[in-house]
Structures are given as C-alpha cells and as structure tokens.
Write a structure and sequence with these properties.
mainly alpha; two-stranded antiparallel sheet; 48% helix; 7% strand
C-alpha cells in the first residue's frame, strides 16, 4: 500500500477510522510519522492542510540540481527529454530520488523514519 499523504511506499504507520454505525471503517497507511501527523492535521482542519516543503526539504531539492545536471550532461545536453529512452528516464528518476533522500537523511538523521 502507498502512503495516503505523499504517495510513497507505506512503512507500517497506519490509521483506522473510528467505528460508526452504518459506516464502513477506513484504513490508511503512511510512510512516516510525519505523514501520519499531517493526515491527522488534515482531518482536524476539515481536509484543507497544504503540505509545504520544510527548510530541509528545500535544501535537499537544491542538492539534486548538480547531480541532475551531471546526468543530463552524460546523456547529452542537446537531447530533448522526449527523446530519452525508458532506461534513461528511469536512471534520471533514480538520480533525483537517491540524491534527494540521501541529502535529507544527512540534514535530519534523527527524524527520517526510513
């Protein structure tokens, strides 16, 4: 199952709706305590919580840029994204995700649940 907040793989954090007569109980899975907390905030606020990136998340996004640039340069700067092969796209996604989460772990090692 995927995280009900961010769409990443669920990691054991769960929420089950309280029992109510005539209403089927809902089950949601989350990737982290942070996403579980955001879901609780969203419920309390009536569903309107916007998830803005934190300072560390913005820093991790910035850290991706040099690695992404290196990868694009290795594929060919003049090659349009529409001409990338499936394997090249998957490798680019891997570069972005790996760099992002590696940097986020370095910035907040005690806070990252994975």
């Amino acid at each position: 199952m995927i995280c009900a907040v961010c769409g990443r793989e669920g990691r054991g954090f769960c929420w089950v709706s309280p029992p109510r007569p005539g209403v089927k109980r809902q089950f949601k899975r989350f990737c982290s305590m942070r996403c579980q907390t955001l879901h609780a905030m969203r419920l309390k606020a009536g569903g309107g919580v916007v998830i803005d990136p934190t300072h560390n998340e913005k820093t991790a996004m910035e850290a991706v840029l040099p690695h992404l640039g290196e990868y694009v340069a290795s594929v060919g700067m003049d090659k349009p994204l529409s001409a990338y092969s499936r394997e090249e796209i998957l490798q680019m996604v891997d570069v972005v995700i790996t760099t992002y989460f590696d940097n986020l772990r370095e910035l907040t090692p005690e806070d990252v649940p994975f």
